[in-house]
Specification:
Keywords: Membrane, Transmembrane, Transmembrane helix. By secondary structure, this protein is of the alpha+beta class. Among the domains are: 70 residues, no CATH class; 124 residues, Alpha-Beta Plaits (2-Layer Sandwich). It has nine helices and eleven strands. Strands 5, 6, 7, 8, 9, 10 and 11 form a seven-stranded mixed sheet that branches. Strands 1-2 form a two-stranded antiparallel ribbon. A hairpin with a 5-residue loop joins strand 5 and strand 6. The two termini are 45 Å apart.
């Protein structure tokens, strides 16, 4: 496949800066003690042993330190893996510790039965959906559709990635993408289909409509239907900047063929309620 016109996107955006000889500050700090150790070995043994023996002895600490500092396994440095192995328990945890912790939490909850109020940064939500975060600024939530990336051709995929890159580089606001799935409530649609089937004069059409409604009811009951919701939240220092960033997100969605709509107060509260209590919130009703 041709790579002409492709937009390079870094695979690791959190990579550390390389400051000297292609090494990071962390790697240099790990290599420095080994260099001092090699110098001490050379200085203390060069007058006592042949160079053929002193050279390998001096290189051993440097080689080990370089392997730990530069080596990586599945994108994780060997030093981090060794640090995790050092703090890992050498034996299974004693049975009953989790139960004791649960009893302790239960006693604490019983001694203070009043539920505390969860206070967040949100001060208020305007009718148009603008979220006041107090000292943190303002936020705007946008309901965005999706496109099937795999079904696009190479040129279309390149254009889509380029559009996303322009959006990310052009925004002066913080951008957060929240993807959630929720059950779909088809009870209203099925009831309306039954009513229209009953009133339809054609018996064959009415029978087919009832069969389709019965099939939909079984599909929801057995498998369950899920609706994917994509919410893009932009946060800025001022209300105007938040509105401008939300408009840029809507323009981006329109350019790639995905629908987008600004969420009003009711929409924002519904998304937050579903995120806090996904099982207690009714599914999206399709009438």
């Amino acid at each position: 496949m041709s790579t002409a016109g492709h937009v390079p996107v870094p695979a690791d955006i959190d990579i550390q800066d390389r400051v000297l000889f292609g090494l990071t500050v962390r790697q240099l700090l790990m290599l420095a003690p080994s260099g001092l150790a090699a110098a001490l070995v050379w200085q203390s043994l060069s007058s006592l042993l042949p160079l053929e023996l002193v050279m390998p002895l001096a290189c051993i600490p440097v080689a080990l330190s370089a392997a730990v500092a530069i080596g990586r396994v599945d994108g994780i440095g060997l030093d981090r893996l060794f640090a995790a192995a050092a703090v890992m328990p050498r034996r299974p945890m004693a049975a009953g510790r989790g139960a004791a912790l649960g009893i302790q939490l239960e006693r604490r909850a019983a001694s203070n039965p009043e539920a505390g109020v969860l206070t967040g940064p949100v001060r208020r939500v305007a009718d148009d959906g603008l979220i006041d975060l107090g000292a943190a600024g303002f936020a705007r939530a946008v309901d965005v559709g999706s496109v099937n990336f795999d079904l696009l051709g190479p040129a279309e995929q390149t254009s889509l990635v380029a559009a996303l890159a322009r959006l990310c580089y052009g925004l002066d606001a913080h951008l957060q993408v929240v993807v959630a799935t929720r059950p779909v409530d088809l009870s209203g649609y099925i009831d309306a289909l039954d009513e229209r089937a009953t009133a339809h004069p054609n018996t064959a059409v009415a029978t087919s409509a009832r069969a389709h409604a019965h099939w939909l009811a079984g599909l929801v009951r057995v498998q369950g239907l899920l609706d994917r919701q994509i919410t893009v939240v932009v946060t800025a220092h001022s209300a105007e900047a938040a509105e401008r960033a939300a408009g840029a997100v809507c323009d981006f969605a329109a350019s790639i063929g995905a629908g987008a709509a600004l969420l009003d107060r009711a929409g924002v509260c519904e998304r937050v309620r579903a995120g806090v209590d996904p099982f207690g919130t009714p599914g999206r009703r399709i009438a």
